[in-house]
Amino acid sequence: MAAANEISAMPKTVLVALIDHEHGTNVGVFTSRAGALSWVADYARQWWQDALELDETLPETPPADDASCSEMYFEAMRDAQYPETFQIQEAQVDPQA
Predict the structure, then answer these.
(1) Cβ-Cβ contacts under 8 Å for 77 (sequence gap 6 or more)
(2) pLDDT over 80 at 12, yes or no
(3) Model confidence over 57-82: pLDDT tens digits?
(4) How far apart are the C-alpha atoms of 2 and 91, rounded to whole Å?
(5) Is residue 58 within 8 Å of 70, Cβ to Cβ?
(6) How many CB atoms lie within 10 A of CB 16?
(7) How far apart are CA 5 and CA 3, in angstroms?
(8) CA dist 9 to 69, 70, 91, 94, Å?
(9) CA nearest 84: which of 44, 35, 27?
(10) pTM of the predicted model as reported, rounded to 2 decimal places
């Protein structure tokens, strides 16, 4: 069981990011929306070439802005043989669990 000072330092909520793709679901847990979106954008940048094959209107290199990169990538991948999606959800932390 966590000590009282450790419990008070824990965040009350976290953000859970989910990326669904052909091979399953990637899950990340973050204390900020910026952190979660950065993780999603890193995934999109890693697989950007796949999105380019589906949408020739995308820029050759992914945008530096995490939100734009994620939105553009997942919009293109919606039309893939195995569509990819992402979501970021807030979850309550139970320090007693």
Answers:
(1) 50, 51, 54, 83, 84, 85
(2) yes
(3) 999 999 999 999 999 999 999 989 99
(4) 20
(5) no
(6) 15
(7) 6
(8) 33, 31, 17, 13
(9) 44
(10) 0.85
| Nearest-angstrom CA–CA distance, 65 and 59 | 13
Domain boundaries, the chain: 4-88
Average pLDDT over residues 37-50: 98
Q: Confirm if 51 and 44 have CB atoms less than 8 A apart.
A: yes
Mean pLDDT (whole number) for 87-91: 97
CA proximity to 15, closest of 67, 88, 95 = 88
Residue 97 reports pLDDT greater than 80: no
Both structure tokens of 91? 């979850």
pLDDT of 30 > 70? The answer is: yes
Rounded Cα gap, residues 36 and 34, in angstroms: 5
Using CB atoms within 10 Å of the CB of residue 36, give its burial: 0 to 12 exposed, 13 to 18 middle, 19+ buried.
buried
What type of residue is 44? A
